[in-house]
Amino acid sequence: MSTKSTRVLVLTCSTRPGGLGPSVTRWWLDTVAERAAKSGVELEPVALGDLDLPFLDEEEHPSSGIYKHEHTRRWSALVDSVDAIVAVIPEYNFGMPATLKNALDYLSAEWAWKPIGFVSYGNTSAGTRAVQHAKQIVTALRLVPLGATVAIRIGEAVAAGRLRANASRDEMGVALLEELVRVANALRPLRERLRDTTSAGPLAGSYTRRLTPDDAEEVAVLQRCCWVDEALLNDTLDIPALRESLDEVREWLADWHVRGLWLDARLLGMVRARAVDGDWQIGRLGVVPDLRGRGLGRWLLRGAESVADADTRRVLIFTGANSTRNITLYESEGYRRIPVAGPAGAVCLTKAMPQERRKGSW
Questions:
Q1: What mean pLDDT value characterizes the chain?
Q2: Which of 73, 197, 239, 289 is the most exposed place for a label (fewest CB within 10 A)?
Q3: What is the tens place of the pLDDT at every residue in 242-298?
């Protein structure tokens, strides 16, 4: 389960003046608000009518991602920023509103691998035929429809334009949110991989991406897994990686160039680097214990070297004086020990950067 917050777009699909959609949306938002707050879920309510989307007017196919109009770019940015969607959808003539179909057709990659849940309303079928209609469309866009739904029969549920209180319906509303979050977290690796398709990792299915302060929780867990061995080897617990707070991890994630290696939402390894007085300092090179010895650390090290600044004179790495496995790796990559002041109990290794080299994009 991811530790990141989940952003949910709550889409009121009807644009009909005086329609029931806003009341249904308000009921669901109020019903799930407490559970959302406890689960770290951000709810983003949007009415399709407020987006001012005309009938699809882009010349390029949505899969190109080339958008001429400002209304399309705003819609794209909004959908791209969320992890999941809840559509509050009425049934019109056995189908979903044309406004929703039009909004779906505007975009392509922005929808992929996000769960979508439905709160439907209508008369005879409580909007369920509209949901079935919508599912044909959303699955073609790689949206993932949930099994949990809420279906509201207007004649039984509405009085004076408002929803009557109904504990059973409230429970279904919360269950929809809970399933939405579980599926959104399960699909997160697919969404992240889609955003960065050029950074395949050394293991089948793995990929790399730059780490940000939002990844602090995963980084903190990885550090505690990786640096326990260092503490034992060097007979000290005075190792920053083992005692940093989440705020401290977030702080250096913002300042360093940090790359993470991922597989199925698991952070397998990382390395950080930055320029200091003409040197390229590399640190926090770590790989999960169960995957050591498979070349992942060497691969991360070379990647960190490849993005060094063009005017870098040398690369510096510090490691524990008794961390023979690390020292052997660095020496096999051309590093040599030098007498440089550093953390107590640590040694410094360095190697010169070639004068002519191709800067990596890793």
A1: 91
A2: 197
A3: 899 999 999 999 999 999 999 877 899 999 999 998 899 999 999 999 999 999 999
6-190 and 207-352 share one CATH topology?
no
CA-closest candidate to residue 350, choices 311, 321, 307, 319: 319
Pairing of strands 144-153, 257-263: unpaired
Domain residue ranges of the chain, discontinuous segments joined by +: 6-190, 207-352
141: which residues sit within 8 A by CB, 6+ positions away?
104, 107, 108, 111, 112
End-to-end CA distance of the chain: 27
The residue ranges of the chain whose pLDDT is under 70 are: 1-3, 193, 195-198, 342, 354-362
50 Cβ contact partners less than 8 Å away, ≥ 6 residues apart: none
CATH number for the 6-190 domain, one of 2.60.40.1940, 3.40.50.360, 3.30.590.20, 3.40.50.720? Answer: 3.40.50.360
* CATH entry, 207-352, from 3.40.630.30, 3.40.50.10170, 3.30.200.20, 3.30.70.330: 3.40.630.30
Q: Which of 207, 197, 199, 126 is nearest to 166 (CA)?
A: 126
**Dihedral of the CA atoms 55, 58, 61, 66 (nearest 10)?**
-140
